[in-house]
Amino acid sequence: MSTQVTQVVRTRVEGAVGHVLLDRPEVMNAITVELGAQLERALTEVASAARVVLIRGAGGNFCAGGDFKELQRLRAGGPGEMAPLFDNFGRACALIATLPVPVVAVVEGYAMAGGFELMQSCDIALVSEDARISDTHANFGQIPGGGSTQRLPRLVGRQRALAHILTGDRLSGTEAVAWGLAYQCLPDNGFEEAVAAFAERLGGMDPRALGTAKRLVYEGLRLPLADGLALERAAVLDHLGGAAAGAGIETFTARGE
Length: 257
Prior knowledge:
Helix content: 40-55%
Distance between the termini: 71 Å
Largest sheet: 6 strands, mixed
Strand content: 5-15%
Number of helices: 11
Shape: globular
Order of helices and strands: EEHEHHEEHEEHHHEHHHH
Structural class: alpha/beta
């Protein structure tokens, strides 16, 4: 007898913009084994059909982290039973850097623990004024399992990251921008319109240029500076031979006539 799987990640594509929605609003979109698996599939699917992907949560919150009720159940089976919770979610987070399109976290309300780790994994984060952002693992006697101990120091530096992980102090949207964890903090009034305008702007740009620039940033972060610069030089020479780059140059030079 087959078991029906509940859809907890929903997708849609509107023009150039793809939408990935974590849809467990009754538990602030808490992460389960199934949500992690669906998130990975959703990102792959939407990135193949859109030029920019927005990830957000239903019900006014981004994501409150792992589902403790599911974790409590899985603990009875030991590490082997718990592993898929972290493996599925970890694969979804790691996938984002490999996708050829920008992936934007649209953060409202709570982005806690695993939700904060998902936000860190995205290429860009837009946060609302009412956002409440924190790695709360230590507050409940836990340690991060979705990447905070590795991504956060790379994003904000060792001391700031470690202090945040150890204290679980809450960050506002404005503080997240000041720390370099978000690109913009948008006012609650007009938030949807600002997000839509940002996505439309990215979606209207040349996808090859955006995809190549994204790849260069992620690959370059793993290389010595000289090697990264060499990688960039090879990429720009290749890119300039393409039709889109040529059209962009012609458009720019025509403005001076």
